[in-house]
Specification:
Blueprint lengths: L2 H28 L15 E6 L9 E7 L2 E8 L10 E8 L2 E6 L5
Amino acid sequence: MGPLLSLPIGIVAGVAALVATAKITRSILRLESDRTPAIEETIGERGTVYLTIPGGETGLGKVHVTLRGRLVELAAITKNDTLPTGAAVEVVDTVGETVVVVPLTFVE
């Protein structure tokens, strides 16, 4: 083959490889998903106080809550009285990366 025939064949083959690579890359990127749990998903979940939560939103404590089938530890505040370790609570709101909890005795 002479240069006049091999140049167009090389260009067509290069463009075909480029198109195929682009389609494969696009297909792979469609498979990507973000499975990072969002703190808002804890609203309505019940949990247990791990570290005492001071009352009246005066400080942070910790709670254990199940999120997507995993037990997670989250910072928590409460508007009610102090919640001791082991108290059953329900998440009612979030503030940034902090959850707002209330004791189950106050949940209606």
